[in-house]
Amino acid sequence: MKAIKYLISILIVLSTNLVCGQNQLETKLDSIENVVNSETFNEDYEPILRYLETIQSDCLNSNSKLTKIRFLNFYGAALCFMQDYKNCIPVLKKYLKLVEDDQISDMAREENISVYEALGHSQLMIGEIDEAYNTTRRAILYFEDELSRYPAGYQIYSLLSQICEAKGDSILLDEAHHATQKCFLDYWNNTASSSSEAKEVKAAYELYSEAISLHDDSYYKYRGIRANLLKSIAFFDEAEYEYNKLIKDVELQSKGSKELLQEVYLGLFQLYKETNAVEKAKRDIAIVKSYFKDYNDNASLTMYACVLNQYAMLLDKNILDYFDEASDAYEEAIKICGTDSVMYILKNNYALLFNHKGVDCILENDAKNAKIYLEKADALCTNEVALATIKHNRGRAEMLNKNYRKALILLKESADMQLRIKGEIMERTMKYINECDSNL
Prior knowledge:
The chain is mainly alpha-helical.
């Protein structure tokens, strides 16, 4: 959960009011805070949970309500992190009852929003969907005027979206996602009040949302634009929802031009590449292929090639597992593409795939296959910056083959390119050139 770490943080305002009589327990609770907030903490909450259990009785029997509150805060967070949701729920409920009955929640608003989020998340995880919905809605109503001040605000709306999806209520789901997006943009504007970008994005979002609400012929166009806007500010979860919602709407209503849906698929696969969502992309690529098979015009084939390019680049980032799939995607894209500018991109990206595979072979001392892949990269590449790197790597592969004369030629070609492009030669290239000279 994105906001859960706030739960384990100390209630600073509250703890400043503690008296010395609570020093022993407070010192123990402080030690937990120090561990969690340290830069070396690796989010291993099991020892923290075990330590809390050793002081549980003393804290809960303490005369200080603040000590009880701090303990419940820490203990509930540790249980949630350990995914012990069944035991986490009563602890968080007890915490909320204490802070609300004593009317001290105003002193730690963000922490308490996060407690509600943790409680709702825990209920959702054990299948108590209605309870999770009620918990989350209560928090949203209780903190309504403050949600845009904290990250926990838009995060609890995001949790509400997950709950609505589990409920199977598409209307509530769309409303929850819209509220998440709006709260995030409000938060961004509140925390970056001098940012012209934040203001411009919010204004554009509101314009597109108003057009979408009309549900006229422009609905599909502006829903796609809104998805692209959310992707452009890296709000990927919400952009993904918008793309998928638009795809479903077009399919169900049989409306929207083919060009619009093609652009949506491209945007979705760009998002998958940015978020390294390999499994989602592998799941959806078959749907995309089925969709594009009905279109044979050059514009559609070029768009499909662009989608395949995004897919292949994503697989390239995970090359050890998906080299063959990435190669097949590039081969198909190059075969169907009829636009020169896109073909240039495809061939050079394909060259980089072979280069990455060749480097992996070099690292494994597989000189034979390194030479094969890097020669393929060299044959495809027309980008001089990339070609300088490829020739450097080809030289390294020839060195593994003990072919120092050919390696020297390739390394010098790379050095000339580097000098022409950047005005300097990589230290590693010069090192390998000297090594080749010494072996001739």
